[in-house]
Write a structure and sequence with these properties.
The chain is mostly beta strands and 66 residues long. It is 0% helix and 47% strand. The strands form two sheets. A four-stranded antiparallel beta sheet has the order 3-4-5-6, with no helix packed on it. It has a two-stranded antiparallel ribbon with strand order 1-2. GO terms for molecular function: transcription corepressor activity.
Length: 66
């Protein structure tokens, strides 16, 4: 478990993009569309990310559960 989320291309096995926004281990990812997802971490943050975008498109801080 680390602080990153890596998106892999299932056709080629190559990594497409790495997201390193969390300050603690990333625990889960939930895809919203084919290009956007939310990741959560023990840092009590949720980051909504989009492929091709370098920074989160939205961040939520201070949730009380993992």
């Amino acid at each position: 478990v680390d602080r990153t989320t890596i998106i892999w291309d299932s056709q080629t096995g190559n990594h497409k993009q790495q997201f390193a926004f969390h300050s603690a281990p990333a625990l889960d990812v939930d895809w919203q569309t084919d290009e956007s997802f939310a990741s959560c971490s023990t840092d009590k943050c949720i980051h909504v990310c989009k492929l091709g975008v370098e920074k989160p498109i939205k961040s939520f801080y201070g949730h009380t559960n993992e």
